[in-house]
DNA sequence: TGTGCCGGGGA
DNA sequence: TCCCCGGCACA
């Protein structure tokens, strides 16, 4: 299984790397092309403007090797990952062609000097957590590229196309070494001592696995399973990820956080990529500060948990007060869905919650009030009952069946600006209605 | 036939 | 980005 996965993973890493290079070169034109293709009625390809790098042949692909493109050569040594096949027992470890997708078959392999200790793979869950397997492959491919081309200096390479993975290179590498230094299970560097071997370690709760963690889902790779096991939450706390949460849950006996995807928590603003956990620092103070500070809602928190401040009876009362013919029924109420959002895909995570904002008609309309002809829109519109803002903050995932079924939205029952104001008062329409777009005032 | 709005295009 | 409009789907 692993032996079959490794070549595919290598090729995938190469594809990801190339794609990211191209995206940096001609992302704008490519995006326009993709949007046009999505519409299905775009201009013919011959008439589309050819952006910088979007349509032309990429330099370095098929042509002479450019300086930025790595040529064939020895790949730097890299510890084998559990995704890749292990070498036969008894043979000295040497870098394999499978480990570097840019290594040309037939090129001489770099032979480490005899007696070189084989580096142990770092299975630190903190390192693996921030990287799902595809991103890990990409990061590793870019690492392989950089270190192959120019060595360590290339971490700080300039360029507009530098991605986040590239910018975080040194930090991540440092974290790796920290993991090895700390002596976590599986990430222990040879010769390092374990906490059991050294009783001078005081923060043992950081390194112990959480006793309340559920078994990891089976579809997670062997590297990501410790990640799932380290996710925990407790009521009233932020479900920040990693060992903090696991340790906090272990201390408070709290429940487990339902894991829906590896990226979900790694994108949290308080995750280690932005706020590296330093086990030797003042972690208890940090935790206390987190407990002390109120649950400030910065918007991003909504993606991680649902906060309910009202009971179901209040909700049902509010819903029953809406008559079926009431125009306010056109405004989608914040449906009290208690279940967590569905497992997110990578693309949905990169574009979180692309839902249109629920329009709340207020006398201070954001933009319409500034316009002279629309100055009284906010005065006329409140003749309709305004949707009462509730404290229910939910994630309302779009039903996938509606997305894939028809490209056109089914027409809602709500009256639009045209019907409400008529053609005579077209200046009272919302902007979208005037432009023959989807009405932004009376949403379905 | 009226309406909603998608997609394209010009400024 | 703003603005307009052709044209399609739907009630």
TrEMBL record:
It is found in: Nucleus. Residues 319-332 have a biased composition (Low complexity). The keyword Nucleus applies. Residues 181-195 have a biased composition (Basic and acidic residues). Residues 67-85, 109-119 have a biased composition (Pro residues). Residues 149-161, 169-180 have a biased composition (Basic residues). It comes from the Eukaryota. Residues 51-63 have a biased composition (Gly residues). Residues 24-125, 145-218, 267-302, 317-340, 375-414 are annotated as: Disordered. SMART domains: c-clamp. InterPro entries: CR1/CR2-DNA-binding_regulator. The keyword Metal-binding applies. Residues 196-207 have a biased composition (Polar residues). Keywords: DNA-binding, Metal-binding, Nucleus, Transcription, Transcription regulation, Zinc, Zinc-finger. This is SLC2A4 regulator isoform X2. The gene is SLC2A4RG.
